[in-house]
Specification:
Layout lengths: L8 H12 L8 H15 L5 H27 L9 E7 L6 H9 L5 E2 L2 H5 L14 H16 L3 H4 L11 H5 L6 H5 L3 H9 L3 H15 L6 E5 L7 H7 L4 E6 L6 H15 L5 H26 L4 E5 H6 L1 H12 L5 H13 L19 H7 L1 H6 L5
Parallel strand pairs: 1-3, 1-4, 2-3, 4-5
């Protein structure tokens, strides 16, 4: 694929229109985020040839899906009448067991989870009868297999399966307001803007996509996860006033090295630029701010909608940890659900995908420095594991 020397928002929009035959992106809320993403890619990311292809495909898909979702709502305005129940949302710093906790809960039949294949292509809306043999599943599996072949260390860092529950950052990406962009390329000006931008319409749109996904594919009680919701819980709860949160806790000094290692590896696909100490300083500052915002939200709104989950407990007895969390949330944990959750746990013991090796010091950080940055958090919660 031959791409122009610089990305242009207008060209990317034109490409999405040409690919779909559609021209309505909905409100223009997404446009500022698109322009800031493009500017960061052009001026900061230092993309290599593969990176240009990857980022062009990522942005193009977000625009294409936005066009298709708006069009689907035009054809079927009754989708707007759907009621999203919950959701139950898994929060916490990255690498604190949020993925494992999410997969455990996703195996409970009472929940509707966002799956990898439908996160990437929400339209046409999935159907109950074909949800396990939809052709998009094979497409997603092929993409995962290609990544595993090209970047074999990735599977030791991050679990990804076509039908497994995934983070909901793709849905936020369709509004071009998600920290996922900085996770794959370095765009600090975009991230600085994102820290203080209005996220309310991002989550309104996010809810619209969930309504579309559940329309012909129940149940309606959603389970979601991604650490980045911690940055904007006020906006999230405005869109989802009944949301409850499972907050996974682990010593940040044991987390940040893994976070930095993962981001450094993924960024290496798109850019040859390496500055691990810069990466460490940025990630420490941003995640300390995210946790601080989540703590502030919790102080203002109270503990009623939060349940704390210890990473150590999750490692020691994951099914019991889920059962205890359900009890605190007032959820039923049926025998059928317990059996399915146990089966997933038995087949996914820690380390089953290999070992992820990293050192905090490689990113210019010390354990004391990290713990100082998270002092308030460590004083408030059991995060010793």
């Amino acid at each position: 694929m031959t791409l122009p020397a610089t990305f242009r928002a207008d060209d990317l929009e034109d490409g999405a229109r040409a690919a779909t035959g559609l021209d309505d992106f909905g409100t223009d809320y997404y446009r500022e985020g698109l322009e800031r993403t493009v500017d960061g890619l052009n001026t900061e990311a230092e993309l290599n040839d593969l990176g240009r292809v990857i980022q062009h495909a990522t942005i193009s898909n977000a625009l294409i899906q936005r066009l298709k979702i708006v069009d689907t709502y035009k054809q079927h305005p009754e989708i707007g009448d759907e009621v999203v129940e919950g959701p139950v949302v898994i929060l916490g710093l990255p690498r604190t067991g949020t993925t494992a906790l999410g997969q455990l809960i996703a195996n409970d039949p009472q929940f509707r989870s966002l799956r990898t294949w439908e996160s990437q292509q929400p339209t046409p809306p999935p159907e109950t009868a074909t949800q396990h043999d939809d052709p998009r599943i094979a497409q997603a599996a092929e993409g995962i297999a290609m990544i595993d072949q090209m970047f074999p260390d990735f599977k030791t860092m991050m679990s990804s399966e076509a039908e497994a529950a995934t983070e909901c950052q793709d849905l936020m990406g369709m509004s071009f307001r998600t920290y996922h962009f900085d996770g794959v390329v370095r765009v600090p000006s975009y991230t600085a803007w994102l820290m203080d931008t209005d996220m309310r319409e991002t989550y309104t749109y996010h809810r619209q996509v969930l309504k579309l996904l559940q329309w012909h594919c129940k149940p309606n009680l959603w389970h979601l996860r991604t650490p980045v919701h911690m940055f904007a819980l006020d906006a999230f709860v405005e869109a989802y006033p009944d949301a409850k949160f499972l907050w996974s806790h682990r010593d940040p000094a044991k987390v940040l090295g893994s976070v930095c290692s993962l981001i450094a590896y993924v960024r290496s696909w798109s850019s040859d630029r390496k500055d691990p100490h810069e990466l460490g300083a940025e990630q420490l500052a941003w995640w300390a701010k995210g946790v601080g915002r989540a703590m502030d939200f919790r102080r203002r709104f109270g503990d009623d909608r939060f349940v704390d989950v210890s990473f150590a407990d999750l490692q020691r007895d994951s099914v019991r940890t889920v059962a205890d969390a359900y009890g605190k949330l007032g959820l039923d944990f049926s025998d059928d659900a317990r059996a399915k959750v146990q089966a997933w746990a038995d087949g996914h013991q820690p380390g089953h995908r290999g070992t992820h090796d990293y050192e905090l010091a490689d990113f210019g950080l010390s354990e004391g420095q990290v713990r100082d940055a998270f002092a308030d958090y460590l004083a408030a919660y059991d995060a010793s594991a």
